[in-house]
Amino acid sequence: MGEAGHAAPLAALARQQIGVTTSYDPGYRQLPYPGGDVPLHTGVCSDVLVRAFRGLRLDLQQAVHEDMKKAFGQYPRKWGLRRPDPNIDHRRVLNLMTYFQRRGWSLARNRQGGGFHAGDVVAWDLGGGLMHIGIISDRRTPEGTPLVIHNIGRGAQEEDILFCYQIIGHYRPRLDSRR
Q: CA 31 to CA 49: how far, in whole Å?
């Protein structure tokens, strides 16, 4: 599935979580592998991505874990880990950013609404060491700013937050280019 082929489905798969994922829980949990997930009613921002990508047959839990096993030194050392952990690695924004970058999905960051397409992934620095990630919707504000589907603490939402925080990553997944 090429660039144009994933966009609307990825946004639609993320949107399906609205009203279903109604809370936020960053706690560490033992997860089955592959295909593990926290309970559907909860999760963090990265879980929105994990669930949406699974609908397109990319299990980020497995993909990130396998990539980390191959290239652990390329991933952030922020958590003091000595080896990959399939229970949590795919739920960390910085790890997802590294994985997307390693896949060649990175785009230049900009403050132009037109540069973002439905299905793109955007990461932000919220300040205080907190990172956030979400999926660009196929819907826009009346002014033309793309909405974002994300979970920042109130469950999955579709909101006008694209330019509310410092953008630190912009990615356009190409699912036919997985290594």
A: 17
